[in-house]
Amino acid sequence: MLIPHPLLGARDAQEFTYLGDASLMDRPDPNGPEAEAAFCDYVFLRDNPAGVHRELWFHEQGDRSWLVVTRDTVTHEILGAELARDVKRGAQT
Amino acid sequence: MTFSGLRVVKEALTGHKGWKPLWRNPEPKPSYDVVVVGGGGHGLATAYTLAATYGITNVAVLEKGWLGSGNIGRNTTIIRSNYLLPGNQPFYEFSMKLWERQEQDLNFNSMVSQRGIINLFHTDGQRDAYRRRGNAMHLSGADGRLLTREELREKVPFLNFDNARFPIKGGLMQSRAGTARHDGVAWGYARAADMRGVDIIQNCEVTGFRMEGGRVTGVETTRGTIGAGKVGVAVAGSSSRVMAMAGMRLPIESHVLQAFVSEGLKPTIPGVVTFGAGHFYVSQSDKGGLVFGGDLDGYNSYAQRGGLPTVEDVIEGGMALMPMIGRARLLRSWGGIMDMSMDGSPIIDRTHIDGLYFNGGWCYGGFKATPASGYAFAHLLATDTPHETARAYRFDRFTRGHVIDEKGVGAQPNLH
Ligand SMILES: Cc1cc2nc3c(=O)[nH]c(=O)nc-3n(C[C@H](O)[C@H](O)[C@H](O)COP(=O)(O)OP(=O)(O)OC[C@H]3O[C@@H](n4cnc5c(N)ncnc54)[C@H](O)[C@@H]3O)c2cc1C
User: Fold this and answer.
1) A65 CA distance to ligand 1 centroid (A)?
2) Which residue, of B3, B258, B340, B366, has the fewest CB within 10 Å?
3) What is the tens place of the pLDDT at every residue in A30-48?
4) ipTM > 0.85 for the complex
5) How many DSSP H helices and E strands does chain B contain?
6) What is d(CA B273, CA B320) in angstroms, rounded to the nearest whole number?
7) Helices and strands: H and E segment counts in chain A
8) CB B120 within 8 A of CB B278
9) How far is the C-alpha of A76 from the C-alpha of A16, rounded, in Å?
10) Which of residues 41-70 of A touch B (CB under 8 A)?
11) CA of B412: which chain A residue's CA is closest?
12) Residue A13 CA, ligand 1 centroid: distance in Å
């Protein structure tokens, strides 16, 4: 698989390590109501869809940036990649 | 139709005209006492045990494809009970005992072969860890013993003992472990369940659950609605997809695992050898092919096929461990979709919906579990209480903090 790195162009997926569902960026508020239950969901439960999946890949053997890669889990086709920090910033504005 | 030596001789002399299909192909009935979703090893073993042990025979197994199209027909057939943790080891030892009598129970040759498994170690630290594991195995009544380097040289002389990075210092051996014929296991359970009245319905995909007042009353399928007193789901890699139809999110990710087989060779490998440090394990099938595999590809997948980097990684592991493998030609490789749980251990439990039960999270190790998983799931479906060996396999272990994490890597399914 080739991951279209937004800064470096197409890179071999072998240069990356995989973390999982991009929702892992949405850490619950530890001081919020029901924080314990929210953290259990956050740590252990996954949508695990068959089809389009947004997921975190770390460019460990490259520029060490985190990417949010959009990929089809049925065909392994990669549909896009963004810098995770841009995604996070976008979500905050 | 029972199998016996006499029968084989008689059929041989009469042109093999007397053999019949091993199970019927019935139309679904309007309803059943228990509907099992998924005709893999676990679903079939569950239906068999419901009928054979718990006397519940008004049972259907619904399989979306053909019987054996899932992981039961894709695995590398290793059976063993060499786990460490108390939540796991008694269950797998129960399974091992069921394997030992399976062919008699089912009257079917599933080619259970206790040829032994050896897990190699390379450092003093690993030796200590395996010694501890061996002791944990003994506590559950299983067998296990440490082999010295010299004993290993006798048994598996072809290994590269002096690999610079991972010199082989010894191994943990379980002699009662081994392999079984994976398709044979599916067929044996299907036939034995069918003979006891279970309907096995292929090409029947479950597409939804029928609920009334928080209780499941049946399933929607591609062959119509089928009523059910209870529904047990055992769909391995499809667990999240199926349970999502009941509104549930699971502590599971689906990942692809690949396996490989070489051309047929004369007997060379006496049992199963695992080289965990090098992401490689191997055995030899009765047909002579070297059957081997390694790690997951490592990303969520429903594709039933993996990528070349993992092929390369596995074969490098093989070359490092036993350079002679480089002389064999690769015949085939394939992939299967693993239901990787968040702690690497399975779930056999009720759900918050009355009448709906779940069995899954088997990761890459559910073949060896087939008999006990079927037994424990049938027990749960029949009695509404967990089987004594499967009490730890509950959903709420994650919220209670009682995860069963053999590898100690945390909620990271691609590392288990
Ligand atoms: C390459 C590989 C190597 C492995 N090696 C080993 C090993 O050496 N030892 C070991 O112990 N384990 C091994 N495993 C793991 C083992 O194969 C699985 O854990 C086990 O087979 C899973 O249980 P099952 O047999 O019930 O699954 P499956 O055979 O996958 O059964 C699930 C069934 O559910 C059906 N299904 C899915 N969705 C629906 C639906 N909506 N409606 C109806 N039916 C549905 C599927 O078609 C499938 O037939 C390996 C797996 C793979 C892929």
Assistant:
1) 36
2) B3
3) 999 999 999 999 999 999 9
4) yes
5) 11, 18
6) 13
7) 2, 6
8) no
9) 15
10) 41, 43-50, 53, 55
11) A19
12) 27
